[in-house]
Amino acid sequence: MGAGGRMQVSPPSSSPETKTLKRVPCETPPFTLGDLKKAIPPHCFKRSIPRSFSYLLFDILVSSSLYHLSTAYFPLLPHPLPYLAWPLYWACQGCVLTGLWVIAHECGHHAFSDHQWLDDAVGLVFHSFLLVPYFSWKYSHRRHHSNTGSLERDEVFVPKKKSDIKWYGKYLNNPLGRTVMLTVQFTLGWPLYLAFNVSGRPYSDGFACHFHPNAPIYNDRERLQIYISDAGVLSVCYGLYRYAGSRGVASMVCVYGVPLMIVNCFLVLITYLQHTHPSLPHYILRSGIG
Ligand SMILES: [Zn+2]
Questions:
Q1: Residue 235 maps to a domain
Q2: Which residue stretches, if any, does this entry annotate as coiled coil (predicted)?
Q3: Number of domains present in the structure of the chain
Q4: Which domain holds residue 169?
Q5: Could you tell me the distance, in angstroms and rounded to a whole number, from the CA of residue 288 to the centre of ligand 1?
Q6: Cα of 253 to ligand 1 centre, how many Å?
């Protein structure tokens, strides 16, 4: 089979309950990646600095206006209007900051401009602002894109084999258990993945932490940039510490913490939906067969 002997994991054809699994494509598609690229209009591949910056500046403008609105006018609102205004602010700011998060993600894919240094500078600033270690995640995320669906090499949302499911798994397979799991996943899933590789690819040769320059996720060429990513996140943490010191922890949580949780929830939700539908194909590499 093309792409170096990939072996598709076929759904069990005898299992009656698996109408969904029957939709899993097990054959090589009748088109190539090149065909797909040709079907996309060429202008979509052009990277324009003015256009990219216009998206970035628009998001910064809206986000700053929301911040100004919340800090300058919410304290003037009569009781109980702040209880309505703050959730509205969190929802709006969470959406806008998700847009900013996505722009930084595009920088990691070198899609912001034709200049790698500019993409990395913009990505580093804005991912750091959202407490994402820019280079660290850029590298693991790139590997995720080139190994999507691989049971051995994909970086995230790697499905467990039945034999690897823990004994308590059966107690979580009900509406209440799933609600608890999804709540934890949407609130803590992203930081837990970055820090402890939760739901990530198993690495046997060391602690797979995105903040650790010697983590097995990275090669020697990449390690220096992991320090830079950590410095970016630490600088923002220090800024937040100073902000909390001058305006109070509650203010910091309200203007930044809750919207950031919404951003994290969005990105876990988006990737969760993209990567865990039962009809998505997964494959293993057939060793020794070219
Ligand atoms: Zn991506």
A1: yes
A2: none
A3: 1
A4: 32-280
A5: 30
A6: 28
